[in-house]
Amino acid sequence: MAQRALMVVPSEPAQKPLSDSPAKFEVSGLVASFGDNEVLHGIDMVIPKCRITAIIGPSGCGKSTFIRCLNRMHELTPSARVSGSVLLDGEDVYGRRVDPVLLRRRVGMVFQKPNPFPTMSIRDNVVAGLRLTGGLDRSRADEIAESALQQAALWDEVKDRLDAPGAGLSGGQQQRLCIARALAVEPDVILLDEPCSALDPISTARIEDLLTVLRERYTIVMVTHNMQQAARASDLTAFFLTGELVELGPTAKLFTRPQDKRTEDYITGRFG
Amino acid sequence: MATSLTDGRSRGATRPRAERLFRALCLAAVIIPLLILVILVGDVLVRGVGRLDWAFITSLPSRKAALAGILPALVGSLYLIALTAIIAVPIGVGAAIYLEEYGHDSRAARLIELNIANLAGVPSVIYGLLGLELFVRTLGMGRSLLAGACTLALLVLPIVILSSREALRTVPKGLREGAYALGATHWQSIRRVVLPMALPGILTGTILAVSRAIGETAPLIVVGALAYVTFLPQSPMSPFTALPIQIFNWVSRPQEAFLTNAAAGIVVLLVTLLTLNSVAVGIRNRFQRRLR
Description:
The complex is a heterodimer. Chain A is built from twelve helices and ten strands. By secondary structure, chain A is of the alpha/beta class. Chain A has a domain at 2-8 and 21-113 and 190-267: Rossmann fold (3-Layer(aba) Sandwich). In chain A, the strands form two sheets. Chain A has a six-stranded mixed β-sheet, with helices on both faces. In chain A, strands 2-1-4-5 form a four-stranded antiparallel β-sheet, covered by helices on one side. The model of chain A is unreliable at 1-13 (pLDDT under 50). The termini of chain B are far apart.
């Protein structure tokens, strides 16, 4: 079993050591539900700063709901309920006086399906976050757009057509545009909800490379269906099953020496 | 045993016949109304075009058919439509935004929506009676353009609300979430993302609704539009007439010459309607092109 698991681990581990990184998120007793349907049954988890944390697990295990609780997107669904605590740099994001709008400017999100705003040009898409919230200094728009597109490794492909509609790009480019859009707001954390599931392998590889670079400055939490992706592109992996966190550990360790039988069954493809 | 594809003399014979019959019936359902429309428009054109000249469009009405013109009715109709749109569009779009974005799941919102759908089916003369009582008498607007426009606005509001709501509903959830994830408030996401996306759809519904108002006669008669107006409306509080009223008045006269005037009036009404519609469709297409 362990042999097969080895194959998905990169030969030279790209992982950064975990010990020296302070916690970005400290989640404890997180319970989330839709109406009567409880999808997370008390999650305790620490997410380290400036690392890539991958969340894997079968469909319906609550991994998307989990990251949507980190920036309070979960509560936008009518009937959604949350309890427990999520500390961001020690501050409870569910605190009474926390404004979810301000939280989301610090905790950006990229979705499964690329969703550039169809009414906006490439440039306007990148600065959309600033413009939406009224914080855009017009004279700096070009500068901000360029720096975000550079960070998202999209600048060279679009620099000659910044006024073209964002929806006219390819799927992979659209997804990098969405990443640039999230970066332009200057968040601390980027949540990615299966960011590559609609993309071809080449676009996927570009995004994974990009994440490895972005980890220098940002804390990244990525939900993925693709175990190879988790193994390739993350420092830390969490395995979720039916609304519970089964195992959390350094990616190389989780994929080679899983501590829990259920994790081993899942990563070796015996179920899920 | 494989069955032959050419099997079934009976079915093979009857199915095409039934199918051909059905096809012919559907074709008839398209052609008959079209034909009636062509005959009607053709008849109006034959009778009216000869009477149509610049003087007809720029003259005031007269007791002598040959001198009578349609200017006050044309201007009245244009004012009426503009005022109706100014009143109905902001209220209608606002109501649609509330129902779709804020009141989304509440029982009250569903009840309101059901009632709006029913209101869209109420005969226009009923709106006329409501307008007479509410705007003309209670609110003291008198038999003015404003009272007429308010009444027509009430008439078209349900359609504006329903079609705007439909347009808002087609904006993908992912785009709203994208805006929230960037730290937009509900209002910012509506203003910058949802409304621009929904605009072409909202415009389409509004165009259809407002064109309906151009041809409305009954509510205007009830509200008290005058048939014989020898001046142009000076303000929203002026008495007024409108194209359908003028046409209705001419048609009800015994003299042949006035019937010709009516036909020419109908041509003017149709041309006005088509012009306004094509301008509106042109504006909508410009917005739509931005989306591609």
